[in-house]
Amino acid sequence: MGFATETLAEIGPGSNSTLAFDVARVREDFPVLQQEVHGKPLTYLDSGASAQKPRAVIDAMREIQETCYANVHRGAYYFSQHLTDRYEGVRKTVAAFLNAASDQEIVFTRNVTEAINLVAHSFGNGFAAGDEVIITEMEHHANIVPWQLLRDRAGITLKVVPIAEDGSLQMEAFEAMLSPRTRLVAMTHTSNVLGTVNPMKNIIRLAHKAGARVLVDGAQSAVHGKVDVRELDADFYAFTGHKLYGPNAIGVLYGKAELLKEMPPFLGGGDMIRSVSFAETTFADPPHRFEAGTPPIVETIGLGAAIDYVNAIGHDAIAAHEAGLLAYATERLQQIEGLTIHGTAKDKAAIVSFSLDGIHPHDIGTIVDREGVAIRVGHHCAQPLMACLGVPATARASFGLYNTPSEVDVLARALEKVKDLFG
Question: Which is catalytic among the residues 42, 381, 388, 412?
Fold first, then answer.
């Protein structure tokens, strides 16, 4: 398999669209990509950790700070009212991005980690000994540790769904784990290590049939394709700005309105109240009930700009481009003797984790860096998954909308140099 040019025109199987995805043009939008590292052109293959930011996001955040910065929800003067409107406008942008029924179902958080902790503390407030939460072997630590803390605090039972050899979820095992005591299924939509895309619509259907609610960790999914929370029928869905070509310190928790309405606050402070006296406090309605204190104003504006940027290019075009990159990278890397790809599920995002026989991933990362290649190495905040794979760590290349087939070739040549150095 190969690419004749760096432009992928196919939008997707069966599509009538012929819109071109011009990678060279897209790359011009990202200032950071126009530089060298160790005298080599930067090849950035770590978007799964944090994606780079387009000029539109950088400019939007700078413009706020240069022309109209103020606190939101608090001021009677123009700057505050103007920025409040823009800030709350992003909530509407996010709601449309997820196809939520209302912008009041959108809670701003710092990241997915905080979103999951919010659900664990607030929705999990009424969980008792013997109640069950189901997770999987492929979870990020952010979707493991909060439930262990809830287990230690409330005595819940934590169940873990195993994965198959190809990195896909063992659906029969999942269905067998569901019981009348299952209160919540908390599961990644896309594995940050394996790239596996879980069949969330079917998972949610089965969970609801058993009377359980579902929290979806969408950190790696919202960036790779269209997410429709109503079509999925997700009860909670979380994603983060910094993987979606936006800033860090801003994340999103979607929650069905009827659930958020019944949930107690996560943190206490300003802006999440209706009234306060020394005798008692009454709380604001969702979503502000869950947004105590001064919010990440500039970062929220940046998130809105990032979503606008992705929407302008188009989810289908991005997904098709990344699917082509994944197919090419898989074939190209499999040609390297001694290289093992971890995660070969049929439904997979543009993430490739791999090992080289007899070479530690940290050595791989250090050597390819000298070739200008930025990849992730380590356990990727998924130590239980590493134990399942039987490795201490992996190297990981994760692709974004600005990556090209020629960058895959740069990575492959760098890995051959790693092999040469280690004999």
Answer: 381
